[in-house]
Amino acid sequence: MVGEEGAFVLGWDEVLTEEELSVTLKVLCMSEEEFKEYKEQDGWEDDSEEEESSPLSNEALSRLKPPCKQLLYDSVLLTLQSYGSDLKAEQDLLNNKEVYEKLSRREQQALHVRYGQKRILHQLLELVQ
Questions:
Q1: Where is there biased composition of kind Acidic residues (predicted)?
Q2: What is the CA radius of gyration of the chain?
Q3: Which of 2, 4, 74, 99 has its CA 20 to 30 A from that of 68?
Q4: What DSSP character marks residue 15?
Q5: Inter-helix orientation angle 66-81/105-128, to 10°
Q6: Full-model pTM
Q7: Could you report the per-residue pLDDT of 49-108, keeping only the tens digit for each?
Q8: What is d(CA 15, CA 25) in angstroms, rounded to the nearest whole number?
Q9: What domains sit in the chain, N to C, each tagged with a CATH number?
């Protein structure tokens, strides 16, 4: 469902792997009975009763049903815990010119990537609270 990487791709304004995330949330938030019924239906892609044709934007994420929001919230928290440091630590490193300049170019780039990833994850936390 989530491809080879096992992850969803989030951007600043929308989910870039929206179809995968929508189907995953829908399935994981179903009761066992609903899942059996859904599985027996022909054509998973053809099911459009609750699907939106627009991208899964940040606004759409904030309007998800509570069980889906909770699932996303918990998933984001687990993802943030997998990092070795928090958002503030990354921000402090970026703001400390003396320490930042001692990092290799590769370490600086990795810092920017981690910081950006964490900012997107924190934004998602706010959207689904």
A1: 43-53
A2: 18
A3: 4
A4: B
A5: 160
A6: 0.78
A7: 444 445 678 888 888 999 999 999 999 999 999 999 999 999 999 999 999 999 999 999
A8: 13
A9: 18-128 (3.90.1420.10)
